[in-house]
Amino acid sequence: MEVVTNPRLSPMSSLEALFCHVDDFCQVFEPLWHQALLSSGKKYRRRQRSFSLSEVMTILIAFHQSHYRNFKHFYLIKVKCDWQQEFPLAVSYQRFVTWIPSSLIPLCTYLRRCFGQCTGISFIDATSIKVCHNRRISQHRVFEGCAARGKTSVGWFFGFKLHLVINERGELLNVQVTPGNTDDRQPIVELWQDLWGKVFADKGYVSQSLAQHLQEEHEVTLMAKPRRNMKHHLMVYQDKLFARKRALIETVIDQLKNISQIEHSRHRSPTNFCVNLLCGLIAYCHQPKNLLYSLIRPIIPYPELTLGKKEESNRAIAIKMSTYEQLQHLSTEQFRRACGVKLQTFNRLVEVLAEAKAKQKPGRPSVLSLENQLLLTLEYPREYRTYFPIAQSWSIHESTVCRMVQKTENTLIKETDCH
Known about the structure:
It is a single chain. It is built from 18 helices and 6 strands. The protein has helices at residues 15-36, 53-65, 71-82, 93-99, 104-114, 188-191, 208-218, 237-244, 247-258, 270-285, 290-295, 310-313, 324-327, 332-339, 343-359, 370-383, 387-394, 398-414, and strands at residues 121-130, 148-152, 155-167, 172-179, 197-201, 220-224. Strands 1, 2, 3, 4, 5 and 6 form a 6-stranded mixed beta sheet that branches. Helix 16 packs across helix 18 (398-414) and helix 17 packs across helix 18. The longest helix has 22 residues, at 15-36. The termini are far apart. 25% of the residues are buried.
């Protein structure tokens, strides 16, 4: 039977479909795996289990696709009760836990089968995988010698770093796990062994020597966002637009942590930690990518455009929300229907924001004007959209939208005339 090389192409909405893909893989992998094992010369009893390897892998992956947050409850309630017909020979929970480490190597190989195709446009980032709370670092013994303290933009942590490479469709291309104190730029060469094209990264990957090495050895163009104290350089307008879509990988990381449950502090062995992480990544690969596909639209029909050609670049800009400059020419009634407030009220709110801004210390200018910041803030409760789609509409980062909305709302709340 032929192995399914890319199971993400088939729907994984049912347990049967998931088991068929895993079982097709195991039927080819298991004989080759046992042939490659080293022998010590001693004979061991090979007692057949009541669960096959494919059934064990299916249950582990299905847990990360469910709403359960505790594997014991999932096995006792979902597997042994609801799925009694699918698994009539289900063993006790204690026995099943002893079988989990034996699925580590097959899961590693199966994850490689789930990776997507490199299209020449990729995004790379790293995220923290905490294994315990910071207050219990001195008491932690499970990952002693393996995990390490690291620091991210949100603070210190103890655990590992998960390095991800995805394409513009949100499909995983490669992953690597390192201790928490590892530099983000260190594993990038190993991650790009079999990949090509352009990779977009954040400020943590800025390195002239690394970019030159990737270009010469692997023909890969590293495009990292410059730091504040660095000079900006001209870039092709097509690359500029794709760099704005780097928030896509943040969405992938959010799904891995909140839906696939790759991070928790209840591990009792490093092996089970690896199994949990692999199953979470596989579960994400089986998720439908329709939402992620829509984030990267064919918005660039003119790849030769540069930032200097303003009148031509307007033809290549993606569909965005109407700005204040476009709405101020509308009539009073049309403006109220578009923004939710009258034009006179809108101008008064802008004056309040301008007065508050004049009292603040001067800093880096905002990407949007005060009128557009107010328009964005009114859009948040009016259309009931989250920060991420609003950020995509205005071509800014999700965190920037959050700061703008909170700052604008707090300023207007303090003004009694705006109540």
